[in-house]
Amino acid sequence: MARCANCNYKWKVKDVLALGFSKRGKECGNCGHRQYVSAETQRLFTLGYLSLLFVPFLLSKIKLSGKDEPLW
């Protein structure tokens, strides 16, 4: 499961899903630092949206970043 890049706090599934739909990132519930979905994970998601069979696999592969990274 996804962990905060700053404090290594393990995020809950609902928080990770909310972060995936957020353009401005989301604050960590533990340390308060803003987290974003990493560029690596964003690229993986674009491939995963082709099939809903990958959704459980993708939830375990999400990585967070302390900065807003461009997709490509």
Please characterize this protein's 3D structure.
The termini are far apart. Helices cover 35% and strands 11% of the residues. A hairpin with a 6-residue loop joins strand 1 (26-27) and strand 2 (34-37). The protein has one domain (13-65). It has 72 residues and is α+β, with helices and mostly antiparallel strands. It has helices spanning 13-20, 39-48, 55-61, and strands at 26-27, 34-37, 64-65.
Essential attributes:
72 residues, 3 strands, globular, 3-stranded antiparallel β-sheet, alpha+beta, 3 helices
Summarize this entry quickly:
By secondary structure, the protein is an alpha+beta fold. Helix content is 35%, strand content 11%.
Structural class: alpha+beta
Series of secondary-structure elements, N-terminal to C-terminal: HEEHHE
The tally of beta strands, per DSSP, is 3
How large is the radius of gyration? 12 Å
Q: Taking all residues together, what is the mean pLDDT?
A: 77
Give the biggest sheet. 3 strands, antiparallel
Strand residue percentage: 5-15%
